[in-house]
Amino acid sequence: MPSITLHPDQPFDLDATLGCGQVFRWDRTADGWWYGVAGGLVMKIRQDGDRLRYAGVPASFIRNYFSLDTDLESILISIDRDPFIHACIVKHRGLRLVRQPPWECTISYICSTNSNIPTIRRRIASIAEQYGQPVGFEGKLFYTFPGPSSISCRGPDFLTACRLGYRQPYVFGTSGIVTDEKAWEKRIRRLPCNEARRELMKLPGIGPKAADCILLFAFQKYEAFPVDVWIRRIMHQYYLTDLNIGSSLTAREYDRIRCFAREHFGEYCGYAQEYLFSTREG
């Protein structure tokens, strides 16, 4: 089985990376193997110390998808600005932001609004089963994630089986707008972060938090800083103590938090966000 030996000066923690909530189509077996589907490929991967063993994809895919070519140590040094984020870094060192396929990431975060991770996973799996292509791997059946035309051409009612609730017209509407997936991805990627954010928020069902997640996880706009209920509480407790977290999160408060994060943590504040988020359960 092929393997990759990790450099000692570039930390990587596979379990932290795949288990932190940034991706929704990975499952871990009892013996430590992770099985997932990304970019139309089915794969499995396991970490044993400084070695990654994998199957189903080439080494180049593993290195790119898991951002193994990113100088994580330098990023962590740059965001290590206070005692709390320092503790988060120590606890989760090696967590990397994966490079998610932009279209799948966009639909995933439309489906994530007002939901927990198990529910999001179920919705994404259902969309893949309804519209994607089946792929056999080690005697099991997996499904690729469908492109926008695969969803839009079947009509909105076909999505009902996916149990998306009020998100159903958002998924269908976005699928009708993004007719050329590759051209859309290229256009968003070349825009500055704030312009790209505004463009994403023109799509049905994408608000500030979903847009920032997509920018961070799919387009490597590391200055994006998604704010959800957990991040809001952390920012109130450790950084912005005057926040009124007893009320609903307003657009003004959201912007205040993300602007503070950009100033405090620097250009890689999105990495800081994920390390902060990973401490949400203690």
The mean pLDDT is 95
Overall CATH architecture of the domain at 102-218: Orthogonal Bundle
Low-confidence stretches: none
Overall body shape: globular
Count of alpha and pi helical runs: 14
| Name of the level-1 CATH class of the domain at 102-218 | Mainly Alpha
Strand content: 5-15%
Gyration radius from CA atoms, angstroms: 19 Å
> N-to-C SSE series?
EHEEEEHHHHHEEHHHHHHHH
CATH topology of the domain at 102-218: Endonuclease III, domain 1
Instruction: Tell me how many strands there are.
Output: 7
CATH level 4 superfamily of the domain at 102-218: Hypothetical protein, domain 2
> Order of strands in the sheet with the most strands?
1-5-4-3-2
* Span of the ends, CA to CA: 36 Å
- Which structural class do the helices and strands define? alpha+beta
Mind describing the biggest β-sheet? 5 strands, antiparallel
Helical fraction equals 40-55%
What does this structure look like?
This protein is of the alpha+beta class. Among the domains are: 3-70, TATA-Binding Protein; 102-218, Orthogonal Bundle (Endonuclease III, domain 1). 47% of the residues lie in helices and 11% in strands. The chain has helices at 14-19, 59-65, 72-79, 83-92, 102-110, 117-131, 148-152, 168-177, 181-190, 193-200, 208-218, 229-238, 251-265, 269-277, and strands spanning 3-5, 26-28, 34-38, 41-48, 51-55, 134-137, 140-143. It has a 5-stranded antiparallel beta sheet. A two-stranded antiparallel sheet has the order 6-7. Strand 6 and strand 7 (140-143) form a beta hairpin. The radius of gyration is 19 Å and the shape is globular. The model has no long low-confidence stretch (mean pLDDT 95).
